[in-house]
Design goal:
Strand order of the largest sheet of chain A: 4-5-10-6-7
Largest sheet of chain B: 5 strands, mixed
CATH architecture of the largest domain in chain A: 2-Layer Sandwich
Distance between the termini of chain A: 54 Å
Shape of chain A: globular
Low-confidence stretches of chain A: none
CATH topology of the largest domain in chain A: Uridine Diphospho-n-acetylenolpyruvylglucosamine Reductase, domain 3
CATH topology of the largest domain in chain B: Ubiquitin-like (UB roll)
CATH class of the largest domain in chain A: Alpha Beta
Mean pLDDT of chain A: 96
Radius of gyration of chain B: 16 Å
Number of domains of chain B: 2
Distance between the termini of chain B: 60 Å
Strand content of chain A: 25-35%
Strand content of chain B: 15-25%
CATH class of the largest domain in chain B: Alpha Beta
Strand order of the largest sheet of chain B: 2-1-5-3-4
Oligomer: heterodimer
Structural class of chain A: alpha+beta
Low-confidence stretches of chain B: none
CATH superfamily of the largest domain in chain B: Beta-grasp domain
Helix content of chain A: 25-40%
Order of helices and strands of chain A: EHEHEEEHHHHHHEEEEEEEEEHH
Chain lengths: 287, 161
């Protein structure tokens, strides 16, 4: 591994100042499960690595405040998956966090890191999109809130400014009942990234939110407001048509070694139907 | 920036023993365990967090030590495979690995043992799917998965007696 300077700020202000000082020559370290691989293989050669894990105000954890569930950016997947607030209000996010990597990876990989790394295959992205999450970022100008749908650009690229640090992810407590489910295909559980990762949420007012990743440059959110997908009694053909419309933004790369476009597009439909069925069951169970 | 590695003082507890040392900031916890502390039970293999050969417990949670910088382990409690045998006696889990033939070439065994010990600490009576999930981050190129699963089940039964 190339050498670098290691900074361990104690406050968020210090971390923001370090990032402002070093700019693109600095990299922020949270769980390290992506960063350390890229430091070792030389695809990243920063002068400074800024470790966020000793910043008191960034202590990991989940809390409820003012109609929101707030997940600290440095909260690891194991703790997201096990958290009672997440499990009660956002079970598809808990399910997604529980299938990221292996136990060893989930004990280190953070929610903030998963979205900042902006892999199209990030498993937490589809549920965060379905649950309408907001990314909270701190920079020299203060705090900025970014809707998660406006956060992802393409693989490895987000709308986070170079001098900003993600501090938390906010999830609005649902005003309407919602049933949601996460589904995923992978070549080998515990190791590989998702070939398809998908989340479907159905609200009691008939709105269906469908989000999917690993089938294009960024995770996609599409919404059905016709109520047709949410209605199991609607004609099968009508439901298939709507589902096809929602899935039309998938454009898997033919160059991926993980799965062929044909396989991904076929599995997207299987997982879409499966997640929709589970979401409807969960909505029913919440009634 | 100079090519000289920056050194950083850290203190950690490894298998119950406090250690103070200066580590290069770009060295992993795995590097420091093996090269500075000469605890070579923990193996270096894929270096991308996929194989689990470098698994150690850090503050009671298993991690791939190839994906942790040594400086991040400052203040941490680390358990490596060397810490599993209390008083020089194999743990029931270690003995079960031998008894079931779960050790073939042995290279993945330290990581498998640390991950399996963590699983049993969290879940003393795991089902086969729970064992498979708990050990999903540990590859065995000899293909001893069936025997490893048997060993974990046997260790769980032994603890119940």
């Amino acid at each position: 591994m190339h050498t670098f300077a290691y900074a361990r700020p104690a406050t968020l202000a210090e971390a923001v100042a370090l990032l402002a000082e070093h700019g693109a020559a600095a990299r922020v370290l949270a769980g390290g499960t992506d960063l350390i691989i890229r430091l070792r293989d030389g695809t990243l050669v920063p002068d400074v690595v800024i470790d966020l894990k000793r910043i008191a105000s960034l202590r990991p954890g989940v809390r409820e405040e003012a109609g929101l569930v707030v997940i600290g950016a440095t909260t690891v997947m194991t703790d997201v998956a096990a958290d009672p607030l997440v499990r009660r209000h956002f079970p598809a996010l808990a399910d997604a966090a529980a299938v990221v990597g292996s136990v060893q990876i989930r004990n280190r990989a953070t929610l903030g890191g998963n979205i900042c790394n902006a892999s199209p295959a990030a498993d937490t992205a589809p549920p965060l999109l379905v649950y309408d999450a907001t990314v909270v970022a701190e920079g020299p100008g203060g705090t900025r809130r970014i809707a998660v749908d406006d956060f992802f650009v393409r693989s490895g690229v987000t709308t986070l400014a170079g001098d900003e640090i993600v501090t938390a992810i906010e999830l609005p407590l649902p005003a309407l009942r919602m049933g949601a489910a996460h589904e995923r295909r992978t070549r080998r559980r515990g190791h590989d990234l998702a070939s398809v990762t998908l989340c479907c949420g159905v609200r009691e007012d008939g709105v269906t939110r469908l989000s999917y990743g690993s089938v294009g440059p960024r995770p996609v959110l599409r919404v059905d407001e016709t109520g047709i997908l949410a209605d199991p009694a609607a004609p099968a053909e009508a439901r298939t048509n709507i589902l096809e419309q929602l899935l039309a933004d998938a454009s898997p790369s033919p160059r991926s070694m993980r799965a062929s476009p044909a396989y991904r597009l076929a599995m997207l439909r299987v997982l879409g139907r499966r997640a929709l069925a589970t979401a409807l069951e969960r909505l029913e169970a919440r009634a | 920036m100079s090519a000289m590695a920056e050194l950083f003082p850290i203190e950690l507890t490894v298998n119950g023993r406090r250690r103070s040392l200066e580590v290069a900031v770009h060295h992993s916890l795995l590097d420091v365990l093996r090269d500075d502390l000469e605890l070579t039970g923990t193996k270096e293999c894929c270096l991308v967090g996929e194989c689990g050969a470098c698994t150690v417990a850090m503050n009671g949670q298993i991690v791939d030590s190839c994906l942790v910088l040594a400086v991040e382990a400052d203040g941490a409690e680390i358990t490596t495979v060397e810490g599993l045998a209390a008083g020089g006696r194999l743990s029931p889990l270690q003995q079960a690995f031998l008894d079931t033939g779960a050790v073939q070439c042995g290279f993945c065994t330290p990581g498998q043992l640390v991950a399996a010990a963590d699983l049993l600490a969290r879940n003393p009576r795991p089902s086969v799917p729970e064992i498979e999930e708990g050990l999903a981050g540990n590859l065995c190129r000899c293909g001893c998965y069936v025997q490893i699963t048997e060993a974990v089940l046997a260790a769980a039964r032994e603890a119940d007696r």
